[in-house]
Design brief:
Elements (H helix, E strand, L loop, with lengths): L1 E6 L3 H12 L42 H8 L5 E5 L5 H6 L12 E6 L12 E6 L5 E3 L6 H4 L4 E5 L3 E7 L9 H20 L4 E7 L15 E3 H21 L29 H24 L3 E8 L6 E11 L28 E9 L2 H6 L6 E4 L6 E5 L3 E3 H12 L5 H9 L3 E2 L5 H10 L5 E3 H5 L9 E2 L11 E2 L2 E6 L19 H6 L20 H9 L19 H5 L9 E3 L10 E5 L18 H5 L23 H8 L23
């Protein structure tokens, strides 16, 4: 049983691209010029490296792109989509894109938006092969404030229920209560299925939560600066104690004349003379030396607007960038940039009076431009208790932001090696105070908890992301996050298909194939000496070994892909892992879960027998159409790009981007 989950960031554009690529449209061909070739979809594709899927690369019915997608991906049994953005009226009137509510051999179950504040956004839908569903519920949370947003649909498969969710994106005091309220309602709904109905639970979808440090790009891990400063203070105390014991002086005062604290606190006696420790502590000394200067500079933080014109529509709007005033520059560190980067040159050196320093990139709102530089402790009001809860401690910044501040404000340039040591240190990781993160970890705790199946099967996989900032082309450098999951009750893990056995003398080819590193056969020359669990393999997978090429890095759109590049999404047999769908389809890729067919022992003969109220509501496309609909123009109902952009505060764009990801700041996750 193959389950696939995918945030399509709008089903209409995703289906149109699948249609153009595989259902009679035009696709890019070969040619070394990188331009769009004239080959059509009727041209025979190149041989696939997977014998199990090579026969599937043929042109399908032009009116059934979703059916084509399901078949080419290994005859998917259950497909869970998030952010379909299809209005209820379109389903009732049968004007939905490509008539996608009906796919031969499948039933579809929809949750659509009824909250007027969310129209044109959200929506989840589950497609299941005929005979796999006992019932469905498009409002399983039991709370209108969340069910009205079209974020969850539940299907009953007999021994288990499947929750398909699109969790709200919330990382500030305004949106966090909504997000946490949804998560608590979701957990209550899952517990009801377990406790009242005796069901196992599978949870899939876009959780908008990065679970640990491996699930965010290393430069976006957060550094707890207060812990860095405290560790530096203790290290200096240890050094003074050793000097005193070694006969370096018996004074009882510190350098600033205060009484020595070393006799009053519990500190260990680690060997600070070790060369590796000296290298590791050098960046900590940099932070200790310059942090007060950074805080002073950020006290002048402001957002400067820049008028921008949309070249397509002529509409004008403001974009914003952060600026600070720096009074003076501290002494330069010995950790000079060796070519590995570490911040821009603005403000990097020179003395004298105050100077203006620009930070970050131009963003679409003042909040996005300034948010990453906020050092305050942040709290939100818990919707259950009404109490204020800390969701981010003071002086918490990402490695990327800390490096930028050190370079631009203080003139201290860290090379990549230093920045990676910071990222790998005990001071860095996802925000440990994030309530959604704590919620998800509690979901996985204990013998009766759920299992993150991807991490269970690939515990050492690095940089295996599922979402990237599309506007700034972050997929092509693999600077993303893993926020799409397949979670399974521990009691159901016996039904998860294990990884196939290693062939004799295997050096990682199995993992290469299953993780689809670049979508090519594991024997490809590029895979020689590549660690299948490492960052290089992950980059190869995200870019199909460079076959997916970026456009401009200032939001200029996505470069056309060749047929060879597009076909890489189909390589390999069905498995649990990541399906690297093309960047032009969505800012997310799909994730997959392969279960044993034994789990479906309680299936029914046909879903046409279902006649309960919740299931009928989940299939609005089966309602009897009013006679007036037969005399309408039949045009496709959609929300205009201008109205969508006004809801999001973003200029109209042709790029498929999940709505709530537009507020993500340069791929940097606050959670």
């Amino acid at each position: 049983m193959l389950i696939v989950s995918w945030n399509v960031a709008g089903l209409k554009p995703a289906l149109q691209r699948i249609h153009d690529d595989y259902c009679g449209g035009r696709v890019g061909g070969g040619g070394g010029g990188g331009g769009r070739a004239s080959a059509t979809a009727t041209d025979p594709p190149p041989p696939s490296s997977s014998s199990s899927s090579s026969s599937h690369h043929r042109v399908d019915d032009a009116n059934n792109p979703l059916g084509t997608f399901l078949r080419l991906h290994g005859n998917v049994d259950v497909l869970c989509l998030q952010e379909h953005k299809v209005p209820l009226k379109s389903l009732i009137d049968r004007t939905e894109p490509h008539r996608c509510s009906f796919v031969p051999g499948y039933e579809s179950y929809w949750s659509t938006v009824s909250d007027p504040r969310c129209r044109g956004f959200n929506g989840v839908v589950t497609y299941a092969r005929d005979g796999l569903v006992l019932g469905a519920d498009s409002r399983p949370l039991g709370k209108s404030e969340f069910d009205d947003q079209g974020r969850c649909v539940m299907t009953d498969h007999g021994a288990f229920v499947l929750f398909n969710v699109y969790v709200p994106c919330g990382s500030d005091s305004t949106s966090l209560p909504r997000k946490m309220g949804f998560l608590h309602a979701l957990r209550d709904a899952m517990d009801r299925q377990r406790d009242v109905h005796g069901k196992g639970v599978i949870l899939v979808g876009d959780m908008n939560i990065a679970l640990d440090g491996r699930d965010v790009h290393w430069e976006d891990r957060r550094v707890n600066v207060d812990e860095v400063l405290e560790e530096g203070r203790l290290r200096r105390l240890r050094q003074r104690r050793r000097r005193r014991r070694g006969g370096g002086g018996g004074e009882d005062e510190t350098e600033d004349g205060m009484e020595d604290e070393t006799n009053d606190i519990d500190i260990d006696d680690r060997d600070d003379d070790d060369e590796d420790d000296d290298v590791s502590s050098a960046w900590q000394d940099d932070v200790a030396t310059h942090w007060d200067g950074i805080v002073a500079a950020l006290s002048t933080l402001e957002a400067l607007p820049r008028r921008t014109t949309n070249p397509s529509t002529g509409a004008t709007f403001d974009r914003f960038r952060a600026r600070v005033m720096v009074a003076a520059v501290g002494p330069s560190s010995s950790n000079v940039d060796d070519g590995g980067g570490g911040g821009g040159g603005e403000g990097g050196g020179g003395g004298g009076g105050g100077r203006s320093v620009m930070l970050g990139d131009y963003e679409d709102t003042v909040e996005n431009a300034l948010g990453r530089y906020n050092l305050d402790e942040l709290t939100y009001s818990d919707p259950r208790t009404g109490l204020d809860v800390v969701y981010r401690k003071r002086n918490s910044v990402s490695v990327r932001t800390l490096s930028e501040l050190m370079a631009k404000v203080c003139g201290v340039h860290w090379n990549e090696g230093v920045r990676r040591r910071i990222s790998d240190s005990d001071f860095s990781g996802p925000n440990p105070d994030s309530p959604p993160l704590l919620w998800m970890r509690s979901l996985l705790d204990g013998e009766n908890g759920m299992v993150d199946v991807f991490r269970h099967l690939y515990p050492n996989a690095e940089a295996r992301f599922t979402c990237w900032h599309q506007f700034t082309q972050k997929r092509y450098t693999n600077e993303g996050t893993r926020i799409d999951y397949t979670l399974v009750d521990r009691s159901l893990m016996e039904y998860v298909e294990p990884l196939p056995p290693l062939p004799p003398n295997d050096v990682g080819c199995r993992s290469m194939s299953l993780l689809r590193c670049g979508g090519r056969d594991a024997s490809h020359p590029k895979y020689v000496d590549v660690d299948p669990m490492g960052e290089e393999a992950a980059l190869m997978a995200a870019t199909a070994c460079g076959l997916f090429e970026s456009g401009t890095y200032t939001g200029g759109g996505i470069a056309p892909a060749t047929r060879m590049a597009l076909d890489t999404q189909f390589v390999g047999k069905p498995h649990t892992g990541i399906l690297y769908t093309p960047p032009s389809y969505s800012d997310h890729v799909a994730v997959s879960l392969l279960m044993k067919d034994d789990l479906l022992s309680n299936r029914i003969g046909t879903s046409d027998l279902i006649d309960d109220g919740p299931t009928r509501k989940a299939q609005p496309h089966k309602r009897q159409r009013p006679i007036s609909s037969f005399f309408s123009s039949g045009g496709m109902t959609s929300t205009s790009s201008s109205s969508l952009s006004s809801c999001n505060g973003f200029p109209p764009s042709s790029i498929a981007v999940s709505g709530e990801k537009r507020s993500t700041i340069s791929g940097e996750m606050s959670e």
